[in-house]
Specification:
The complex is a heterotrimer of chains A (350), B (346) and C (336). With 346 residues, chain B is α/β, with parallel strands linked by helices. Chain B has 12 helices and 12 strands. Chain B has helices at 7-10, 12-18, 71-78, 101-110, 128-138, 147-157, 174-186, 204-221, 232-236, 256-261, 266-274, 315-319; strands spanning 23-36, 41-55, 60-64, 86-91, 94-95, 111-114, 192-196, 224-229, 241-246, 249-255, 325-326, 332-333. In chain B, α5 (128-138) runs parallel beside α7, α6 packs across α7 (174-186) and α7 runs parallel beside α8 (204-221). Chain C is mainly α and 336 residues long. Chain C has helices spanning 2-29, 34-39, 46-55, 62-75, 104-139, 144-157, 161-175, 191-225, 228-235, 240-267, 272-277, 283-292, 296-324; strands spanning 77-79, 87-89. Classes of the chains: A alpha/beta (350), B alpha/beta (346), C mainly alpha (336). Chains in contact: A-B, A-C, B-C.
């Protein structure tokens, strides 16, 4: 949780809507969070949770014609919502940078790695190509690419998956940004390479001291690198707290569902997983009340508020965990008991 | 490949206990020709390079490994979507390595495959009823009560509403589509299913639904599975025995407990160690980090293929290829310097 | 690269060989009697007919005729044998026009510049204009410009050259005299005359074909603009111009190069309808007339030349492709 007064990124009540042929999609519906420099926020959620849309909105990479942005996104105190693109683009790549899921498609197939890095540097620095080249090779070396001089002149398809993602990271950090958004940076990679990349991101953050947002569907990845965790579902925040708080005493039934449906390397392999029933909601037609209630095992429906009132994101009261907030109608006492009795022994939750 | 010990022979304990294997694979090899190099000389991608294992009725063998290890190629050879370069595949005592049409057709009803992508493996122009009933039609099978009744039973079996018989694939979510694929594979009452990354395209919560479904089906129908996946935790939840592959070879094979709790091969150990574990917040003690990438299967390293990334490698590893042999931990591993410590205690 | 070229040239030569055999076979399967048509229908005496047949070696079995035709290409031959009118035809000899006794190579030499002028000039016009309009439409997708351009493109794409050509001739040449009458003036003789003579066919081709290129490039560009690497380019903070030109355009243009190359290559052997519409005696029109006259050597020569252009254009397209896209390696097949 960002308790400091001056977080580098402050997102307040962000709403993102798209117009489509079938109607209005509420992709993000009132999301608030902040990240300070030197900290990593993990945003967790499944497809359609709004996690990627949130990151694209911060970078201003949404399609301006069909997308409506409301709320406030303060990057170092400047609101980027509604900022004209020619001004916003000066922040992109310099103050905030982004790493994408699949480095093979995210890098241009027809240009050498070196040329793409040089371009990224020269957009924001008035330097000669030679100076930019020196900087690019330095960065390639820094992210652990062997023989950076030679690799500089190679094309993305000549790199392995892990090396490509390293090159992507080098490119995103070449202007020493204060905010780095990594959207599923290891999902396309093999597990041993994923471990290398996560270690690298950890090291680089210590060195560059940037604010980092790591978007992922994998709670395991989050627990390894994040300081804070934001769990998103159906475009809203389900739960928000430090990684310690969210992983040790998760409060939202959706977070439980994620933990209990992920197979783990420990515990009884014969035990059945506890999946979340049903399917994620259509964002064209969001369920009333708590967006998770149709899939929630514990929803209070008959006379209860779950299908009528949208739960507020509230601070825990009975335990002293400052900053741990949850949007759930269940009484706090019941949540804590349910977690300990039913959930904590299943899947990765154990 | 001459030094490859017949792993199946070594796996004697199982044989005595479980009777005849349903599926037996011996020294299976698949090389894909490619043209490469400056003079365009013929080279081969050695995708699968001498793999042996057995699957008994009702048992799941998990095949794990990183991309390019040959696990999917192996799966495709089992159901004969790919022609093996050499080696032998035996199903219920019959050599099916080079089975031709008639034999293959019989085989198809006993052996099915499900794929990773539930989007592209279903014909978008066919209704669910047609898709699931297709194997029955193709094989001219008229089940008692008719095709429609059988299809609806199958839909129910995989947890879909039988009334959705006339819907099209696009009307279903990803997880439901994978269920349709599973229903189709069950239509002919197969004895074994090759599942190639069946859950890796699905969201976590949906993935658990499908894993539970597959486990129920295995229990209720006494199905055998070859379960191919890159996710070690998923494999652990679904497989009684596990084979770990690296660069076209099995580096370790054995019962699940041995593989996961006391891995003998350094690669197995590194693989397990690399899985991000939500239960260990930010801990980095005792983690093994492999350097670099998997080498190219066109020109794999001499001797032990893992030696270029192995922290234990010595001279012998470059000169002599280790054979699969029983290690202290109880599993079969191909390593000159196996591990023997307990990694995870239950 | 070298290996690739050798392979493709050998493949091309064998294609040409197969085509020549096919054309020969088709010719002899038909009921054609070229000697009769050369002799003229009115007063052809059997003696004359006999003389022509012998002169052209039409009395010899087809495979011998084919052998002597091929020999002519590589070492040259004398047509007419011992006859006093025998024609010396040096290598590469493609035979003689049955009608005019003119050497086929001369016929091709005369008609080829006409076809080339029409096709290449038209192609430059419509590929550039069509692609440019398509790209603009994609960038301004959904705008009024896009709708007008798309609508116009569809209209012209569904018309035919003989219709547009005739309308252009009628309105701008015959009635108003705004544009000169199409005719072929060699470029070396008068560049301006060449330009003037070609302008109407070019406009006609441009109207019809730029529509196809506009539609193709619009679709390509829209697809490319949604690619991840374009998003990366935006994420770097690049301005609009380099995003479109450096990143999107280059990727979108690749398939257009392929199609344009094969399209142009296919037309270089003759565009009969266009040539007929504008009364220009290019290879296409000549070939059609020769088919009517059962004028085998002319048909054969033009068919072989157009096949050769097509083969060459596929080779050039492949080389261009490897220049644009570094992932394409010439001479290597498949692989992962």
């Amino acid at each position: 949780m960002s308790t400091a007064n001056n977080p580098y990124l402050q997102v307040s009540n962000l709403r993102v809507k798209f117009e489509t042929h079938d109607g209005t999609v509420k992709a993000v519906d009132g999301v608030t969070f902040s990240v300070e420099k030197g900290k990593t926020l993990g945003i967790v959620g499944e497809s359609g949770s709004g996690k990627s849309v949130t990151s694209l909105a911060i970078m201003g990479l949404h399609n301006p014609k069909s997308t409506l942005l409301q709320g406030e996104i303060l990057v170092d105190g400047r609101n980027v919502v509604g900022m004209p693109d020619d001004k916003l683009r000066l922040l992109r790549g310099r103050d905030m940078a982004m790493i994408f899921q699949d480095p093979l498609t995210a890098l241009h197939p027809f240009y050498t790695i070196g040329r793409q890095l040089v371009e990224a540097y020269r957009v924001h620095h008035k330097v000669t190509k030679a100076v930019a080249k020196k900087r690019a090779i330095e960065m390639l070396d820094r992210v652990g690419i062997p023989q950076p001089q030679r690799r500089f002149g190679q094309y993305p398809h000549e790199f392995s998956g892990g090396m490509r993602q390293r090159a992507m990271i080098a490119m995103s950090l070449i202007n020493d940004p204060n905010l780095l958004i990594a959207d599923e940076p290891t999902t396309a990679l093999d597990v041993t390479v994923q471990a290398q990349i996560l270690d690298l991101l950890n090291d680089l953050q210590r060195e560059f001291h940037s604010a980092v947002i790591l978007i992922t569907h994998d709670l395991g990845v989050v627990s390894q690198v994040a300081d804070d965790v934001l769990v998103m579902y159906g475009g809203r925040v389900a739960e928000y707290g430090t990684a310690q708080q969210v992983m040790k005493l998760p409060q939202h039934p959706y977070t439980w569902g994620l933990l209990a449906s992920m197979p783990s390397l420990r515990g009884d392999p014969e035990a059945d997983l506890l999946p979340i029933k049903g399917n994620p909601p259509s964002l064209l037609n969001v369920p009333p009340g708590c967006v998770f209630h149709p899939r929630c095992r514990y929803a209070m429906l008959k006379g209860g508020p779950c299908d009528r009132e949208v739960p507020e994101l509230l601070q825990l009261r009975t335990v002293d965990e400052p900053g741990h907030t949850v949007a759930c109608h269940l009484p706090e006492r019941q949540r804590i008991e349910t977690y300990q009795e039913e959930i904590s022994s299943v899947g990765v939750a154990q | 490949m001459t030094e490859t010990v017949d792993a199946v022979q070594l796996d004697t304990g199982w044989k005595a206990a479980q009777g005849e294997p349903l599926l037996k694979v011996e020294n299976l090899i698949k090389h894909f020709p490619v043209r490469g190099g400056m003079f365009g000389s013929k080279q081969h991608v050695r995708a699968v390079d001498g793999v042996s294992f057995e699957v008994r009725p009702g048992e799941t063998l998990g095949l794990v490994g990183e991309s390019g290890c040959g696990k999917s190629t192996t799966g495709r050879m089992l159901v004969r979507l790919l022609e093996p370069t050499s080696g032998k595949i035996t199903f219920e005592g019959q050599d099916i390595t080079h089975a031709r049409r008639g034999q293959l057709q019989r085989l198809r009803s006993d052996m099915q495959i499900i794929f990773q992508d539930p989007y592209s493996s279903l014909n978008p122009r066919h209704t669910v009823g047609t898709i699931v009933g297709m194997p029955l039609k193709v094989n001219n099978i008229n089940p008692p009560g008719g095709v429609k009744k059988r299809v609806q039973e199958l839909l129910e079996l995989v947890g879909l509403n039988p009334e959705h018989y006339n819907r099209f694939p696009h009307e279903f979510s990803g997880g439901q589509r994978q269920r349709i694929g599973i229903a189709r594979s069950l239509a002919l009452r197969p004895k074994i299913i090759v599942a190639d990354e069946p859950v890796s395209a699905l969201d976590v919560s949906i993935q658990a639904q499908v894993i539970n479904l597959l486990r129920d089906l295995q229990r209720d129908l006494n199905l055998a599975f070859v379960f191919i996946a890159h996710d070690l935790a998923v494999v652990r939840h679904f497989s009684q025995r596990v084979a770990v592959m690296y660069l076209g070879k099995i580096v370790e094979i054995g019962p699940r407990e041995q593989i996961y709790n006391r891995p003998a091969h350094p690669y197995t150990k590194a693989l397990l160690s690399a899985v991000p574990d939500a239960t260990r917040l930010g801990e980095s003690v005792g983690r093994i980090r492999l350097q670099g990438d998997v080498p190219t299967p066109i020109n794999p390293p001499s001797g032990c293929r893992f030696r270029t990334r192995c922290w234990k490698a010595q001279d012998i590893c470059a000169t002599q290829e280790p054979a699969l042999s029983v290690k202290e931990t109880g599993s079969l591993a191909a390593c000159h310097f196996p591990e023997n410590a307990v990694l995870i205690e239950n | 690269m070298f290996r690739f070229l050798i392979k493709r040239v050998l493949l091309g030569v064998s294609t040409l060989f197969a085509i020549s055999v096919t054309v020969f076979a088709l010719f002899f399967m038909g009921p054609a009697d070229p000697a009769a048509s050369m002799c003229g229908t009115k007063q052809c005496t059997p003696v004359q007919h006999e003389r022509i047949t012998t002169f052209l070696e039409l009395d010899r079995p087809p495979h011998e005729q084919y052998a002597s035709y091929m020999r002519g290409i590589f070492v040259g031959r004398t047509i007419g044998g011992d006859s006093p009118d025998a024609i010396e035809c040096p290598a590469p000899c493609l035979g003689i026009n049955f009608r005019t006794y003119e050497q086929v190579s001369t016929v091709i030499g005369r008609t080829m510049p006409i076809t080339f002028s029409i096709v290449l000039g038209g192609a430059v016009l419509y590929v550039l204009i069509g692609t440019g309009l398509g790209m603009l439409s994609a960038i301004k997708r959904g705008s009024i410009f896009d709708r007008i351009a798309s609508g116009t493109a569809l209209t012209f794409a569904s018309t035919q050259i003989f219709f547009i050509g005739s309308v252009l001739l009628l309105v701008f040449v015959y009635q108003t005299d705004l544009l000169p009458l199409p005719k072929y003036v060699p470029f070396t003789e008068s560049p301006l005359g060449w330009l003037g003579g070609m302008i109407v066919p070019w406009i006609a081709l441009g109207l019809i074909n730029s529509a196809q290129y506009a539609r193709l490039s619009r679709a390509q560009m829209i697809e490319t603009l949604s690619e991840d690497f374009v998003r990366t380019a935006r994420a770097k903070g690049l301005a609009i111009a380099p995003i479109y030109f450096r990143h999107a355009l280059r990727a979108a243009v690749t398939p257009i190069v392929t199609i344009a190359g094969l399209d142009i290559g296919g037309q270089l052997g003759g565009v009969a309808i266009t040539e007929t519409t504008f009364s220009l005696n290019g290879m296409g029109r000549t070939a059609v007339r020769a088919i009517d006259e059962a004028n085998l050597p002319v048909v054969m020569g033009i068919v072989l030349f157009s096949a050769m252009f097509l083969v060459l254009s596929t080779i050039i397209v492949d080389i261009l492709y490897s220049v644009i896209d570094p992932r394409v390696k010439l001479g290597t097949s498949g692989g992962h």
